[in-house]
Amino acid sequence: MSRKLRAAVAQLGPIHLADSREAVVKRLCALLREAHSAGVKFVVFPELALTTFFPRYWMTDQAEIDRYFERDMPSPETRALFDLAKELGIGFYLGYAELTQEKGAPRHYNTSILVDPDGRIVGRYRKIHLPGHSEHLPQAPFQHLEKRYFDVGNEGFRVWRMQGAVMGMCICNDRRWPEAYRVMGLQGVEIVALGYNTPIENIHHREPEHLRMFHHLLSLQAGAYQNAAWVLAAAKCGAEDGHAMIGGSAIVAPTGEIAALALTEEDELIATNLDLELGEYLRRTVFNFEKHRRVEHYGLITSRTGAKTEV
Ligand code: CDT
Fold this sequence. Notes:
alpha/beta
């Protein structure tokens, strides 16, 4: 019997500073209803899906920063999303900023969760590859302060069995790092869900705009193919208070082919029937890890962080 899961990526257009969480959750619920009408059973929402992409703003008042974080999940404002998903029997991935306490100290994470069709949180991922900088760059057109506002995730790249599939999560910049996919691949991941907020402009290095989309899709397609997994990537995009971010939400097959691609920079749902057996020939042949990997030659990957030339 073939294993299939009808799944969707729910791209979000801009969320402005003035937009309330209640207004955003209404948009998420509208996308969930659209997904239900399209027969979808699993939906991926973006990174930091409840607020504007606040790491672009320099802030020094911790109380002001903490306003972008959720202390509970579901929170009073997101409860409606969980209830609707349960009513419709849809599982989902959601990204948000998490404020928690560890050993009596506040910790801030860029987090995503997997919620099953009964509305239960079954998995949590805290972003590991935090991009950007922690100091103020007054000359830059905007900031990218993830290294200032978030702690590095402390729960690794795990996988969970949900809705008949082995699912893993990562967030935005993680998609550029092959290690993230591989650690999930080594746990037999079949679906990698991820959300992202990618500014059109690279503040660290001037590059043509088209390269942002090229590198985004290249990273998804390589990660999918080399690990024989479906990759579902949801953008928050368009111009948030004038700050433009790429769209390009995509569903990529284990072959590395793009199965569905968003066309707008607005709220948009794209859906595909995921054939969970599609990657099996890759796992049996070219990417049969057990047969072909040579871990005795990979030591540097975990023992060395930066590149060092010794010749
Ligand atoms: N949110 C996030 O991780 N954004 C980063 C910007 C990196 S700039 C090279 C991204 O990888 O898209």
